[in-house]
């Protein structure tokens, strides 16, 4: 049978130039090429957003009586210090199921408040706040309609406050600043609704006494995928932190509507 195999290969080689596509015996003997995929390629996204976050809770510096502040998100445009303007942006670098993420916020606010005690005092509070969330995530669920990521990282806070207390025959002005980092763990997921629409939700919790006693947030948005590169979203975000250290008190909740656009490249 060896002579038959040699004869067949020789015949194919001889008539190969006259066959469609010029098929040669050597071509038949080779396996088809394996197509490579882009599963290991990095993709990146940037999401500038606007969070109309009201603020309520207690603040204090240098051992002052804690001041109650309450700024509704409907008043936020009057309360924001626009110079320098607020900065809010999310970034992600993803490689398959693994991703690195960051979320940076700078916000300056001015608020009125009150301090209850033996002598009630009115308060004027000016604060500059940086909230930087960072970490890594791993996708544990991924199918045609649903994704679920587990995440871990940290949230850095920088708060600079100037508090003026005013009452009968008293004016007291104090200022101070603190920086701390809270470890966080959480999850994030999406559910496709069809026609480009989807739901996105995130939640994390941290602090655990490392920095703040408690630091947590929840976020829910409705998304619309305009094209492969642009996704629009709008929803609501709630961020709560309870920090009290060395006479510096920042026990507040920031919450309100959020809108943004994600650009993928």
Describe the structure in your own words.
This protein is mainly beta. Strands 1, 2, 3, 4, 5, 6, 7, 8, 9, 10, 11 and 12 form a twelve-stranded antiparallel β-sheet that branches. Strand 6 and strand 7 form a beta hairpin. The radius of gyration is 29 Å and the shape is elongated. The two termini are about 60 Å apart.
- The average pLDDT is 86
Helix content range of the residues, please? under 10%
Shape type: elongated
Sketch the topology as an H/E string, one letter per element: HHEEEHEEEEEEEEE
Unreliable spans: 1-38
- Total strands: the figure is 12
Structural class: mainly beta
Quick description:
By secondary structure, the protein is mainly beta. Helices cover 9% and strands 66% of the residues. Strands 1, 2, 3, 4, 5, 6, 7, 8, 9, 10, 11 and 12 form a twelve-stranded antiparallel sheet that branches.
Write the layout of secondary structure elements.
Elements: H1 2-15, H2 25-29, E1 42-51, E2 54-60, E3 67-71, H3 76-79, E4 87-95, E5 98-115, E6 121-142, E7 146-167, E8 170-194, E9 197-207, E10 214-225, E11 230-245, E12 248-264
Antiparallel strand pairs: 1-4, 1-12, 2-3, 2-12, 3-5, 4-5, 5-6, 6-7, 7-8, 8-9, 9-10, 10-11, 11-12
Q: Can you tag this structure with a few keywords?
A:
disordered N terminus, 12 strands, 12-stranded antiparallel β-sheet, 265 residues, mainly beta
